[in-house]
Amino acid sequence: MRRTPSPSPTAAAAAILLSSGAGLLLLPPALGALPPGYEDEMWCAPGECALYVEYPDGMAGPASMFNKCHDASTGVTTDGVWTGSLVE
Fold this sequence. Notes:
Helix content is 18%, strand content 20%. By secondary structure, it is of the alpha+beta class. The N and C termini lie far apart (68 Å).
């Protein structure tokens, strides 16, 4: 008779968490749009300009996905700071 190895305690705990749904709390958050009032205006650091990022036709997503800040002197592109009417 062939003996199968038992799973490690860590693997068994992970299987229980994932099968119970509690493991979903351990997954990283999905990229998503902010609700209206939180992503209305983008601000870039002094010396940077707003840059529209081109994506293939039909691509949809939050405004922050299509707009970045670009520093022409260094060539570095970064995320802007987003504000809106509901941001305190």
